């Protein structure tokens, strides 16, 4: 039986992330009758309707999902998800008396969305989870090839419809606004501000060597050369693949067009780069 060593950094990230989620839930969402997404949002809704403990509901709703996950998902992922779920429930209890004094609607949205988004972002960045619809979405994605974002969106859409039914359109709009801000903060925490650009440069056999050499020498970025054939001309081509910083795009354009004005180049946004390279995220397995 293979042993899986504990990832202390991952555990600490889950602890910090779930603490922020609990503070956002007890300090902002519940006092202002706002909902969040997923199991926590459904638990908050039932708290408003029946005065049931959110922490207990989070655990109860997750039990069947974890049982289902045992048959379909990796045990390591489930173990950390279980830890995240339990930690969240504990923090929800410990921070039950926390109330962040906010009066203005904008303050409620910004503070609540920022805390919640940072919490989720920290957990996601550590490849953690708090269970809930993440488990269901992973299973559906794995076996039905339905995008996880689509599954999450549909479930959260049902929660928002329930919010409109029970609390009115105004509260639902505030909830949507906070969830939108939260998602942006999550993306910022996970991806950071140092976004990269991936370039594909299609050039000919006369110019690919000098262009790739100059990218490596002047911009200090690695280049992968991929032999290809032009479908229309049937002539040999070379695709230069490289990932660079945003400010370096103009330099690569200048180098390429100087030596091959007819080169074809595409530039794509890249939120994360994992591996060896300047400014890249190293992956430790």
Mean pLDDT score: 87
Largest sheet descriptor: 4 strands, antiparallel
Task: Give the overall form.
Answer: elongated
The portion of residues forming beta strands comes to 5-15%
Short précis:
With 285 residues, this protein is α+β, with helices and mostly antiparallel strands.
Can you put this structure into words, describing what you see?
The protein is of the alpha+beta class and 285 residues long. It folds into two domains: 8-191, no CATH class; 196-270, Alpha-Beta Plaits. The chain contains ten helices and four strands, in the order ααααααααβαββαβ. Strands 2-3-1-4 form a four-stranded antiparallel sheet, covered by helices on one side. α1 (8-29) crosses α4 and α2 (38-50) runs parallel beside α7 (148-167). The radius of gyration is 24 Å and the shape is elongated. The two termini are 19 Å apart. Mean pLDDT is 87; it is low at 281-285.
């Amino acid at each position: 039986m293979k042993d899986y060593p504990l990832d202390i950094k991952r555990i600490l990230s889950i602890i910090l992330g779930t603490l922020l989620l609990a503070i956002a839930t007890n300090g902002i969402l519940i006092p202002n009758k706002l909902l969040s997404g997923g199991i926590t949002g459904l638990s908050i809704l039932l708290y408003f309707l029946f005065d049931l403990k959110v922490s207990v509901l989070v655990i109860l709703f997750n039990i069947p999902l974890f049982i289902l996950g045992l048959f379909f998902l990796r045990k390591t992922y489930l173990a950390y998800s279980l830890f995240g779920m339990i930690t969240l429930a504990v923090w929800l209890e410990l921070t039950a008396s926390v109330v962040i004094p906010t009066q203005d609607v904008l303050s409620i949205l910004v503070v609540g969305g920022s805390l919640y988004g940072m919490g989720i972002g920290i957990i996601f960045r550590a490849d953690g989870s708090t269970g809930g619809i993440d488990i269901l979405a992973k299973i559906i994605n794995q076996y039905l090839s339905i995008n996880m974002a689509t599954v999450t969106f549909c479930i959260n859409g049902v929660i928002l419809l329930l919010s409109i039914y029970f609390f009115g359109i105004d509260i639902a709009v505030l909830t949507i606004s906070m969830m939108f801000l939260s998602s942006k903060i999550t993306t910022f925490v996970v991806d950071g501000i140092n976004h990269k650009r991936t370039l594909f440069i299609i050039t000919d056999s006369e110019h690919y060597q000098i262009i790739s050499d100059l990218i490596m020498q002047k911009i200090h970025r690695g280049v992968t050369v991929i032999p290809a054939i032009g479908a229309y001309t049937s002539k040999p081509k070379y695709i230069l693949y490289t990932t660079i910083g945003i400010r370096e795009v103009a330099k690569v354009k200048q180098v390429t067009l100087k030596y091959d004005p007819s080169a074809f180049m595409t530039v794509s946004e890249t939120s994360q780069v994992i591996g060896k390279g300047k400014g890249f995220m190293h992956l430790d397995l």
